[in-house]
Amino acid sequence: MTGRDGGADLKPEGNTPVVILVRPQLAENIGATARAMANGGLFHLRLVAPRDGWPQSRAWRSASGADRILDAAEVFETVDEATADLHHVFATCPRPRHIVKTVLTARGGAAELRAITVRGLRCGLLFGPERAGLDNEDMARADALIRYPLNPRFMSLNLAQAVMIMAYEWYMAADATPPRTLMTNETHVATKGELDNFMRHLITELDACGFLRNEQKRPGMVRNLRHFFTRGEVTEQELRTLHGVVSELSRSRGRPSG
Amino acid sequence: MTGRDGGADLKPEGNTPVVILVRPQLAENIGATARAMANGGLFHLRLVAPRDGWPQSRAWRSASGADRILDAAEVFETVDEATADLHHVFATCPRPRHIVKTVLTARGGAAELRAITVRGLRCGLLFGPERAGLDNEDMARADALIRYPLNPRFMSLNLAQAVMIMAYEWYMAADATPPRTLMTNETHVATKGELDNFMRHLITELDACGFLRNEQKRPGMVRNLRHFFTRGEVTEQELRTLHGVVSELSRSRGRPSG
Fold first, then answer.
1. B155 vs A5: CB contact, 8 Å cut-off?
2. CA B142 – CA B82 distance, rounded (Å)
3. Averaged over A26-38, what is the pLDDT?
4. Residue A14: which pLDDT band, with cuts at 50, 70 and 90?
5. To 10 degrees, the CA torsion angle through B22, B25, B26, B31?
6. Quick one: which of A3, A123, A39, A127 has its CA closest to B164?
C-alpha cells in the first residue's frame, strides 16, 4: 500500500501489550507480525520455541523495516516462561473448545487491554502456530480467550493477519479520528452565506441566458439547483472555481459576466 | 492461525463490495487478498492492469483455499472500466493528498458500505499498488477516501493487510457478537442460590476443621472467601467440582464430610 518508512521511529512507548507467538513455524510470518505490530503501535515481541530457531534472516526481510521489533524479540522455551512477568494473558482462539473461559471479541479484548494497561499492569497476547493454533494447555494459562468475529465459512486466518487485527483494534481503542470528515487542505468549508452568494451569481446568469425563462418551472428549477449544490460540503476554493466557471461560460457566449 | 478450511463454501452472498486492486505487483499479495476477503465475507475481486499479468499460479498458492475468489476475479485495463458498473467507489489512501475529498476511517467506511449496499447499490474499494499507492487520477474517481487510523510512525502497510482491515470492518459492521461473554459449553452459569449452597458447604467444613475458630476474625474471613468466589461467573459444573474438592479434603482429614 505504501513504500517503506524505515521504522527508525519505532521504539517501546509506554506500557503496550506483549505479542507472544507460540511455536511459530514460518520466519516470514514472524517478520510480517513485526510489521503489523508496528502498524498498530505495538513493540514487544516474544517467541516461544520457534520451529526453525531464532534469529532467522527471512523474518527481517518480510518485516518491511520493523527491524527494531525483531531485534528486541525475546525467545522462551515455554508459555509459562514467556508469561511469567505478565499480569494478564489473552489467548487468540478461532474455534470453540471444551473449556469454560471468558471469550472476548477483538474489539472487546482491545478495550480490556487498554483498561488493564492504564492501571500499570502488563498484558500479553498469545497467538498459536500457523496450522494447529494454541493447544488446550496454552489456553488454560490465559485469563480470557479472544475470538474474532469473521466469516465462519472460511476460518483460515493467516498468523500475521490475526496479529494485524488485534494491533489495529489496540490502536483504534485509543483513537479519536472522526469516522467521516472532509479533507480540505489549505482551503476551508464554505459558509451558507458564501454558497448563497454563488447561487445568486448562477441564477443571475441563468436568467440572463434564458435557461430559466419558463416562469412556471423557474422556482422548481432553482430549488433543484440549490438541492444539488448543498448535497455535500463545498469549500471556499471550490466556490471560487464555480464562480469562475459561471463567469467564463457567460463571457464565452458574448454576454457580460455577472 | 488455523489449518485450511478448503473454502468450498465460498460463494457470492448478496450485494457485497467489490475489492479492486489497482496495478498490483505481487501475485502472492493477490492471493493473500483473496484469503483476507474470504475471512471477511467478501467475494468479488477485480484487478486493474496487474503488473505480471493474470492468472498467476502463485496467487492460488498463497490464497489458502480461497480459490473461488481468484477463479472469479475479473481483469480490467483501467480504473474507469473496473468501476463503470458501480454506484459508489471508495479509495484507500494512507497519506494526506492535496485534494478536497471526504475522508472516512475504516470503521466509518464500513458503516457507509453497509448503508449503501442495503439500498441495492454496488460499491467498490480501490487499493493501490504495493509501493506507490493510488495516484491522484485514481483518487479523483472515488466518492470518498478511506484512511486507517494506524501508527503514523510506521505507515508501511502490506496490501493484503490493508484489505484484511476493510474486510474485517465490513464483517464487524453487521456482527452482533457480545464483546465479552463466558463460554460454558455443556454447562451453565450458576445462580446465586447455587453459589450460596456451595458457600454454606465450604463454611460448614471450615468451621468443622477449625480454620474459622477465631470468632473475631471469622466474619471477615467468610466475607473475603465470598468475595473471591463471586469475582467471576462460575458454572454449575465448576460448583459440583468445588463441592467435591471440599468434601474430599474433609474426608482425607478423617472427618465426616458435610
1. yes
2. 12
3. 98
4. confident
5. 10
6. A39
Chain position carrying cell 516470514: A28
Whole-model pTM: value is 0.88
A183 and B111: CB-CB below 8 Å?
no
Q: B248 to chain A, minimum CA–CA distance in Å? A: 23
Q: Which residue of A has its CA nearest to B102?
A: A182
| Together in a domain, B204 and B234 | yes
Query: What nine digits make up the cell of A178?
Result: 472522526
Q: Residue B193 burial by CB count (10 A; 0-12/13-18/19+): exposed, middle or buried?
A: exposed
Q: Residue A248 belongs to what domain range?
A: 192-252
Instruction: Provide the number of structural domains found in chain A.
Output: 2
Regarding whether B211 and B139 lie in a shared domain, the answer is no
Give the model's confidence band at A2: pLDDT under 50 very low, under 70 low, under 90 confident, else very high. very low
Residue A59 CA to residue A28 CA, distance in Å, equals 5
3-state secondary structure of A189: strand
Residues B86 and B151 in one domain: yes
Question: How far away is chain A from the Cα of B91, in angstroms, using its nearest Cα?
Answer: 12
Q: Is residue B166 part of a domain?
A: yes
CA distances in angstroms from B256 to A185, B20, B232, B240, listed in the order given: 81, 73, 30, 18
